[in-house]
Amino acid sequence: KSMLEATAEANNMTALNAAMDTYRNAMKEICGPEKPFMAPTDLEEGHERQREGAVNLFRNTKKMGTKKFCDEYEDRLRVQVEEAYEQFVAGNNNKNVFNAARTPATLVVLLIVTHLMGYLFETFYLAQMDQFVDYIWWISALMICAWSYARYSGQYRDIGAYIDGFALLVWEQVLCEIYAGVAQKLFGLNLPWMAAAAIKAKKQ
Protein backbone atom coordinates (compact mmCIF):
# COMPACT_ATOMS: atom_id res chain seq x y z
CA LYS A 1 0.00 0.00 0.00
CA SER A 2 1.44 3.36 -1.04
CA MET A 3 1.73 6.40 1.22
CA LEU A 4 -0.92 8.16 -0.87
CA GLU A 5 -3.38 5.29 -0.48
CA ALA A 6 -2.75 5.08 3.26
CA THR A 7 -3.31 8.81 3.64
CA ALA A 8 -6.53 8.70 1.59
CA GLU A 9 -7.78 5.79 3.65
CA ALA A 10 -6.95 7.58 6.91
CA ASN A 11 -8.67 10.86 6.13
CA ASN A 12 -11.73 9.12 4.66
CA MET A 13 -11.99 7.10 7.85
CA THR A 14 -11.59 10.27 9.91
CA ALA A 15 -14.38 11.93 7.93
CA LEU A 16 -16.58 8.84 8.37
CA ASN A 17 -16.01 8.77 12.14
CA ALA A 18 -16.73 12.48 12.44
CA ALA A 19 -19.99 12.06 10.51
CA MET A 20 -20.99 9.11 12.68
CA ASP A 21 -20.27 11.05 15.87
CA THR A 22 -22.40 13.90 14.57
CA TYR A 23 -25.25 11.50 13.79
CA ARG A 24 -25.09 9.75 17.16
CA ASN A 25 -24.94 12.99 19.14
CA ALA A 26 -27.89 14.44 17.23
CA MET A 27 -29.96 11.29 17.71
CA LYS A 28 -29.16 11.24 21.43
CA GLU A 29 -30.67 14.72 21.62
CA ILE A 30 -33.79 13.35 19.93
CA CYS A 31 -34.23 9.99 21.66
CA GLY A 32 -31.37 9.43 24.07
CA PRO A 33 -31.76 7.36 27.26
CA GLU A 34 -33.02 10.37 29.22
CA LYS A 35 -35.65 11.24 26.60
CA PRO A 36 -39.23 9.89 26.83
CA PHE A 37 -40.76 7.48 24.34
CA MET A 38 -41.55 9.08 20.99
CA ALA A 39 -43.78 7.96 18.14
CA PRO A 40 -41.89 5.69 15.69
CA THR A 41 -42.83 7.89 12.73
CA ASP A 42 -41.32 10.95 14.45
CA LEU A 43 -38.20 8.97 15.29
CA GLU A 44 -37.86 7.84 11.68
CA GLU A 45 -38.23 11.42 10.44
CA GLY A 46 -35.52 12.54 12.86
CA HIS A 47 -33.29 9.70 11.68
CA GLU A 48 -33.73 10.66 8.03
CA ARG A 49 -32.81 14.29 8.74
CA GLN A 50 -29.73 13.37 10.75
CA ARG A 51 -28.67 10.72 8.23
CA GLU A 52 -28.69 13.27 5.43
CA GLY A 53 -26.82 15.70 7.67
CA ALA A 54 -24.14 13.10 8.37
CA VAL A 55 -23.80 12.21 4.69
CA ASN A 56 -23.54 15.88 3.70
CA LEU A 57 -20.90 16.42 6.38
CA PHE A 58 -18.89 13.51 5.01
CA ARG A 59 -19.22 14.78 1.43
CA ASN A 60 -18.20 18.33 2.35
CA THR A 61 -15.15 17.22 4.31
CA LYS A 62 -11.96 17.53 2.27
CA LYS A 63 -10.63 14.07 1.53
CA MET A 64 -8.01 12.44 -0.63
CA GLY A 65 -8.70 9.64 -3.10
CA THR A 66 -10.79 9.11 -6.18
CA LYS A 67 -14.56 9.58 -6.21
CA LYS A 68 -15.03 5.82 -6.33
CA PHE A 69 -12.77 5.42 -3.31
CA CYS A 70 -14.65 8.08 -1.33
CA ASP A 71 -18.01 6.61 -2.39
CA GLU A 72 -17.02 3.30 -0.80
CA TYR A 73 -16.57 5.06 2.53
CA GLU A 74 -19.85 6.92 2.07
CA ASP A 75 -21.56 3.56 1.59
CA ARG A 76 -19.92 2.32 4.78
CA LEU A 77 -21.18 5.43 6.54
CA ARG A 78 -24.74 4.75 5.42
CA VAL A 79 -24.53 1.16 6.65
CA GLN A 80 -23.20 2.24 10.04
CA VAL A 81 -25.89 4.91 10.34
CA GLU A 82 -28.62 2.34 9.73
CA GLU A 83 -27.09 -0.02 12.29
CA ALA A 84 -26.97 2.80 14.84
CA TYR A 85 -30.56 3.71 14.01
CA GLU A 86 -31.69 0.17 14.78
CA GLN A 87 -30.15 0.54 18.23
CA PHE A 88 -31.97 3.84 18.78
CA VAL A 89 -35.22 2.21 17.68
CA ALA A 90 -34.68 -0.64 20.14
CA GLY A 91 -33.92 1.82 22.93
CA ASN A 92 -37.02 3.85 22.11
CA ASN A 93 -39.20 0.73 22.05
CA ASN A 94 -37.93 -0.26 25.48
CA LYS A 95 -39.32 3.03 26.84
CA ASN A 96 -42.80 2.17 25.63
CA VAL A 97 -44.64 0.73 28.61
CA PHE A 98 -47.12 -0.99 26.33
CA ASN A 99 -44.36 -2.92 24.55
CA ALA A 100 -43.48 -4.67 27.81
CA ALA A 101 -47.12 -5.62 28.34
CA ARG A 102 -48.13 -6.07 24.71
CA THR A 103 -48.14 -9.87 24.71
CA PRO A 104 -50.25 -10.42 27.85
CA ALA A 105 -52.50 -7.47 26.96
CA THR A 106 -53.13 -8.86 23.47
CA LEU A 107 -53.86 -12.34 24.81
CA VAL A 108 -56.19 -10.93 27.47
CA VAL A 109 -58.06 -9.05 24.75
CA LEU A 110 -58.42 -12.34 22.88
CA LEU A 111 -59.78 -13.98 26.03
CA ILE A 112 -62.36 -11.24 26.50
CA VAL A 113 -63.40 -11.14 22.85
CA THR A 114 -63.72 -14.92 22.51
CA HIS A 115 -65.64 -15.10 25.78
CA LEU A 116 -68.13 -12.50 24.54
CA MET A 117 -68.38 -14.16 21.13
CA GLY A 118 -68.97 -17.53 22.80
CA TYR A 119 -71.77 -16.01 24.85
CA LEU A 120 -73.41 -14.59 21.72
CA PHE A 121 -73.07 -17.83 19.77
CA GLU A 122 -74.53 -19.77 22.69
CA THR A 123 -77.42 -17.34 22.89
CA PHE A 124 -78.24 -17.85 19.22
CA TYR A 125 -77.68 -21.63 19.40
CA LEU A 126 -74.63 -21.64 17.13
CA ALA A 127 -72.97 -24.58 18.80
CA GLN A 128 -70.18 -25.14 16.27
CA MET A 129 -69.05 -21.52 16.34
CA ASP A 130 -69.31 -21.51 20.12
CA GLN A 131 -67.02 -24.54 20.25
CA PHE A 132 -64.54 -22.90 17.87
CA VAL A 133 -64.18 -19.71 19.92
CA ASP A 134 -63.99 -21.85 23.05
CA TYR A 135 -60.90 -23.52 21.59
CA ILE A 136 -59.38 -20.11 20.89
CA TRP A 137 -60.11 -19.05 24.47
CA TRP A 138 -58.32 -22.07 25.91
CA ILE A 139 -55.38 -21.65 23.54
CA SER A 140 -55.06 -18.00 24.56
CA ALA A 141 -55.23 -18.93 28.24
CA LEU A 142 -52.51 -21.56 27.79
CA MET A 143 -50.39 -19.03 25.90
CA ILE A 144 -50.61 -16.57 28.78
CA CYS A 145 -49.52 -19.26 31.24
CA ALA A 146 -46.67 -20.44 29.02
CA TRP A 147 -45.51 -16.89 28.25
CA SER A 148 -45.58 -15.90 31.93
CA TYR A 149 -43.54 -18.95 32.93
CA ALA A 150 -41.01 -18.42 30.13
CA ARG A 151 -40.72 -14.70 30.84
CA TYR A 152 -40.22 -14.87 34.58
CA SER A 153 -38.36 -18.17 34.90
CA GLY A 154 -35.94 -17.57 32.04
CA GLN A 155 -36.60 -21.07 30.70
CA TYR A 156 -38.15 -22.06 27.36
CA ARG A 157 -37.31 -18.66 25.93
CA ASP A 158 -37.96 -19.88 22.39
CA ILE A 159 -41.56 -20.61 23.31
CA GLY A 160 -41.87 -17.16 24.84
CA ALA A 161 -40.42 -15.64 21.66
CA TYR A 162 -42.92 -17.50 19.47
CA ILE A 163 -45.80 -16.26 21.63
CA ASP A 164 -44.42 -12.71 21.46
CA GLY A 165 -44.34 -13.03 17.67
CA PHE A 166 -47.92 -14.25 17.58
CA ALA A 167 -49.08 -11.40 19.84
CA LEU A 168 -47.20 -8.86 17.72
CA LEU A 169 -48.88 -10.21 14.58
CA VAL A 170 -52.33 -9.93 16.16
CA TRP A 171 -51.52 -6.43 17.43
CA GLU A 172 -50.24 -5.09 14.10
CA GLN A 173 -52.71 -6.84 11.81
CA VAL A 174 -55.88 -6.41 13.87
CA LEU A 175 -55.82 -4.49 17.15
CA CYS A 176 -53.61 -1.62 16.03
CA GLU A 177 -55.94 -0.70 13.19
CA ILE A 178 -59.06 -1.15 15.33
CA TYR A 179 -57.70 1.02 18.15
CA ALA A 180 -56.64 3.76 15.74
CA GLY A 181 -60.03 3.71 14.03
CA VAL A 182 -61.97 3.80 17.30
CA ALA A 183 -59.82 6.62 18.69
CA GLN A 184 -60.33 8.62 15.50
CA LYS A 185 -64.10 8.14 15.38
CA LEU A 186 -64.96 8.45 19.05
CA PHE A 187 -62.39 10.93 20.32
CA GLY A 188 -61.06 12.60 17.19
CA LEU A 189 -57.56 11.39 18.00
CA ASN A 190 -55.17 10.82 15.14
CA LEU A 191 -52.71 8.03 15.88
CA PRO A 192 -50.57 7.92 12.72
CA TRP A 193 -47.90 5.70 14.24
CA MET A 194 -50.50 2.99 14.91
CA ALA A 195 -51.84 3.18 11.39
CA ALA A 196 -48.32 3.15 9.96
CA ALA A 197 -47.47 0.03 11.96
CA ALA A 198 -50.56 -1.72 10.63
CA ILE A 199 -49.83 -0.70 7.03
CA LYS A 200 -46.22 -1.79 7.36
CA ALA A 201 -47.27 -5.17 8.73
CA LYS A 202 -49.65 -5.73 5.82
CA LYS A 203 -46.90 -5.02 3.29
CA GLN A 204 -44.54 -7.56 4.83
Overall description:
By secondary structure, the protein is mostly helical. It contains 7 helices and no strands. α4 runs antiparallel to α5 (127-153). The model is unreliable at 198-204 (pLDDT under 50).
Query: What is the string of helix and strand elements?
Result: HHHHHHH
> What portion of the residues fall into strands of 2 or more residues?
under 5%
Strand count, sense and closure of the main sheet? none
What is the rounded distance between the termini? 45 Å
Mean pLDDT reading? 83
Q: State the total count of DSSP E strands.
A: 0
Spatial shape: elongated
- Uncertain stretches: 198-204
Topology of this protein?
Layout: H1 3-31, H2 40-60, H3 67-95, H4 97-123, H5 127-153, H6 157-187, H7 192-203
Helix pairs in contact: 1-2, 1-3, 2-3, 4-5, 4-6, 5-6, 6-7
Give me some keywords for this one.
disordered C terminus
Quick summary:
This protein has 204 residues and is mainly α. Helix content is 86%, strand content 0%.
